[in-house]
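We emphasize that the prediction below concerns an isolated chain of 318 residues; any contacts that depend on oligomerization or on bound cofactors are therefore not represented. The input was used exactly as deposited, without trimming of termini.
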Amino acid sequence: MRWSLIARPANSPQLVLTGEHGVGFAAMQAEEPRALTVGEYLRHASGAIREAGFATPDLDARLLLAEVLGEEPRAVHRGSGTIVEPVAAGRFEGFLARRLAGEPVHRILGRRSFYDHEFQLSPETLEPRPDTEILVEVARPLVADTIARQGTCLLADIGTGTGAIAISLLAMFPEARALAIDLSPGALATAQRNALTAGVAARMVPVAGDYLAAIGGPLDIILSNPPYIPSADIADLDADVRNFDPRLALDGGADGLEAYRAIAASAGNALKRGGSCVLEIGQGQAPAIAAIFADRGLRLEAQTPDLAGIIRVLHFAH
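Result of the prediction step, given as a C-alpha cell string:
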C-alpha cells in the first residue's frame, strides 16, 4: 500500500492513501500539486496515524519528520511554515507508509534512546524500553560499591541484545568491565557497534553463548532482561512487539520461567561470594522466581516496582 500527500491551491492539503484495496482518507481529484510545509505534513500525517489506530500519532509524526529534516524533534514545530524539499518529502512518505503498515517508529528510525545513550537496533535485538532502565538504576549502586571495595567490577549481561544494560553501566563506571552474552551473532554485532559509539568497546567483550554456559567466573554482578513471556501468550502481545521484536528474546517457555531456571543453575558457581544477580521480570513472576533462586542458594535482597507499581526488577545476593 502506498500513500501520498497532495494539495490543491484552493483547498487545504488532503491525505490520500492508495493501494490495491483502494482505501482512502480523502477521495479527491488532484489539480496541480504543490509542495507542502512542515506543519501540513505534521497535521495530515498525524491524522493518518490516528485514523490507523496507533496510540501516539502526534509524537510518531514528529519523530519521523524530524529524522528526514535532520532536526531535533522538539525543533520541528518552529519550522512549521517551511517547505519540505522533495528528497525529504519522499523519505517521509516512505517512513509514514511503514508506520501505517504497523512498523514501530524506532524500528523505522533504526535506533532508540535508553538511559544516557542512543542504541542502534537490528532485527535480532529487542528495542530497549524504559522498564529496563529500572534494572540499570538498581545495578548502579551495586557497581559503585564493588568498585569502592576492590577497584574494579566485572559484569555479565546475559541476553545483551543492543548492549544497552552493559554499555549504560560501563559508560558510568570507567573501572568496570563487562561480558556481553547472547546466542545471536547479529545481536552481538549490534552491541559491539553500540559499544564503539559509546566509547566503551575496549571494556566490553562479546560472548556467543547460552546464558552462563561459556563463563567460568568469577563475576561480581550478573545482569539480565531475559525472555519471560509464556509461549502461549506471544500471540496476544501488541503487534509492534509480536511482529518486530525477535521471538528468541521474548519466549520464556511454557511458563515464562525457563531463562530464570537456567541463570539460577549457574549463578552460584559464576558469582563471587557476596556477588549480585539483578533481573528484569514479568508481571506476577516475583514469587516463583524468588523460589527458583532460593533453591540455588541465592537470597532475595530487594524487589523494585515500575511506575505502575508492578514488581519489575529483582536483586539476589550470593
